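Cross-posting from the modeling subforum.

Setting up a comparison between two proteins and wanted a second pair of eyes on the formatting. Protein 1 (sequence, then structure tokens):
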Amino acid sequence: MNEQQDTQLVLIVDDSPQNLQILGILLEEIDCDIAVASNGKDAVDIAREQHPDLILLDIMMPVMDGYEVCRILQEDQNTSDISIIFLTALSNPDDLVKGLKLGAVDYVAKPFKGVELLARVRNHLRTRSMMKELAYLNATKNKFFSIIAHDLKNPFYTIIGFSEMLMKNIDTHTREEQLKFMQMIYNSGKDAHGLLENLLNWSRIQIGSIRAELTTLSSLDLVERTVAFLEPMAKKKSIRLEQEEDSAYEFRGDENMMQTILRNLGSNAIKFTPPSGEVLILTRESEDGSGVEFIVKDNGIGMPEEVQSQLFRIDARGTRKGTDKEAGTGLGLILCKEFVEFQGGDIAVESREGEGSVFTVHIPYVEGEAANEKSEVNA
């Protein structure tokens, strides 16, 4: 359930329409998407916007030749990992060495043989796929150990520290102080339990041992239980937590996954909403009637576009603190995305700094299943 499963994209760059057509026809034999550019400038723009897995790049082009395209892409950290194969009629070894020094991974001489070209493209796409998977696994490992090394142990410092203080000096503290310490111990234990639960669920996803059990659920029942769960957290920050009165929609989903999704989104909204703010949870049927939408809306601090683009990425660096300096790992939103996709749905976010955020979860209706039938779907 990760981005490495997407179809790979190959960008063809050549100023000859005939060559573009021939290459496009050849690549139809490979399971990949194709983008084309007839000049170097367009090639750079497309590479930056669509981030292809591989570029088949002509060298001799007007305005901006292939060497310049390669140099620009290699110097940009956002595109430097894109594999480039030069397609060239140049036969001078110095020209070929120049291309490889600029960062190309291979070259194919013109006129090229279709079998040879396809073999090289397949090899480089396979290598690219393995590198992306390795990077994903490495990021997953780093995230896992970061949570264990820092976020998971921090609540236990509070639990151990204040419980020790109570045991050694209980007679010297007033009842109000004792209750305050116990409340802090309770809150830290609850935080640790929630994080551990997310961590275990996420770990089960990584090793493929989790399943989605589809049963008939009521959107109203899920929202009511979510609000009841979040109410103490909202009251603590003087945040008004509301659910929109609406009809109950029945759909088939995994009850535990849905509860985890809504609780994580709700607690995240409360975390980034200042005191006296408002969090609203509502449901509706999607405009096209294909499923149920759960919407969690807040009027909190919001977030810039660069933060939004990193929300569901395992390799995202750093997390923001809440309005009451609440710590976080970013794992909750990653888990939400995984659980939503397990049920065939999708999740989206809209946000503006200083105005708040809106998270929308779409869970599609499952066709051809009786309302009272229970089924298991392998992940």
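Protein 2 (same layout):
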Amino acid sequence: MDIASLIGLVLGIVLVVGAMVQQAGDVASLAAFVSYGSLMIVLGGTIAATAIGFRVNEILRVFTLVKFVVTKPKFVLHELVQDLIDAAEAYRKGPSELEKFTETTKNPFIIDGLTFIANGIKYDDLKAILNQREKFRFNRETHESDLMLTLGTFSPAFGMIGTLIGLVFMLNSMDGGADSASKIGPAMGVALVTTFYGSLFSSLIFNPFAEKLQLRNRENRQASELMITGLLLIWQKKHPLDVSDMLTSYIEPKDRFKYFSEKE
């Protein structure tokens, strides 16, 4: 679980609701912020507009993307380094030992790469396949973060549209009677709720989630570059120490020092 993302989301909600309660004086007054019509305009309109630029199955995938935001990174770099060094040691003993080692590895990308190597693939072909897989993964995850950014762009706009709709009905209901002025305040409050929804969804959910997906994509690219480099070194039958020296340059100093202390 990514504690930072979870804390940020919960803290944001608590602070907003807390400020609303403080201004309202009591929790019952928060009913003024509940408007199902405004919610329909903001969420429905945002999803509908996004569906114009994306496929329906991609829109539905938004709900599954949330788990990537609150979960830990997919790869632990220093663990990948250790797996690749162990694979290099196995390959120096022969392709059969590499096949045995592959059965103990859990990373699909490394498993496929080692299987190609054990089957005698050419260097250029291995490099091309691995790079193409990484390119496809990067483009797919970039597309997913773009989808979340689009949701964050449209939600404030539909919040304003809902407010304009509310203002039109408010002005049309004013007949110039003695109680017309008393209707302006409550009606204006209802109209502004839609803008509130649009800004809240954009600033607290869609845009922060898009940023986290972009961060995850960059982390995955770094991990993929590490694995590709390691697999190509293994194909060349580089000594495990050479593989270690090359791959540890991809990880943070604290992990690098920890790794070397474990090897001593």
